[in-house]
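Re: beginner question about structure tokens

> Can someone show what the tokenized structure looks like for a real chain? I only ever see the sequence side.

Sure, here's an example I had lying around. Input first:
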Amino acid sequence: MISDDQLRRIMSRLPAAKRAGFLPHLNQAMREYGVHTMLRTAAFVAQLAHESGEFRWMEEIWGPTDAQRRYEPPTPLAKRLGNTEAGDGKRFKGRGPIQITGRDNYRRYGERLGLDLVTQPEQAATPAVAFAVAGLYWRSNGLNELADAEDFVTITKRINGGTNGLADRQKYYALARSVLAEGFVADPPPAVALPRGGARRSAAAVPPPAQEPPLARGHEVITRDAARSARSASTAAAATASGSSPAEASASARKPAAAKGAKPRAAGSRKNATGAASTSRSTVAKKRLDPAGAGRRPPAKATPAAARKATGTRAAKA
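And the corresponding structure tokens:
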């Protein structure tokens, strides 16, 4: 459990009014999803502080930007996000402190929480649901256990797909550990969860970690799509510069470069590890047959019949 003063010291840019509105739901989610030790709380709060800008960005700002236009069908990214209808990109944009994105993710989290987030996706930005989604994501991905082991870098990789913003995340982590070390009160999960969205649910209804498949948040496929787009743009630029087609430029980029100054080898030639031409077995065999290297076999041993044929005479009978 985290107090108002502790949260204020960790997230100094969060206004007091918002802090008061978020704190009960943050503590509720941490109790329900097993974030109830000092190490787990410090890691959880630090990661959310970075991801949401200290809870100031609970909803993705919609432009749409060029990247956001790819959320809309029929793009490959929209398909991976499960966005099937016109307007799904904006309808299922990033919400909450971990920014779940895409129709499929809204459906999965809604099913686990007993809420219809497909029909009412705006609920994902409300404090009660937003922190519940974050807690469910955290637990389903085994992040409590990594927090116990103080493996903050691996937690970052599971959330981000890499180590983007690691220094900022670690800054919050160190600060949270320092603040929580002073009077942290462990708060075990309640037997019954508080009401959420008009529904009263038992904490036991939430599957335990052993039965809980990991959930995604949408950021993973968006990041991969951005990387693909960057590669395609680079290939197109290279094609324009060289006057070749994008396919040719892509193939050329994948082709390993030849060593500088290397000459093409004749067919059938081989080189040893030092680069010198190796002597073939057939050449060795020829040298053994023709020590002088003249390229001819030594004459076969003459026989009496051969001698008679050569001189045109018959051997005298003894």
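Each token stands for a local structural state, so reading them left to right follows the chain. The mean pLDDT is 80.
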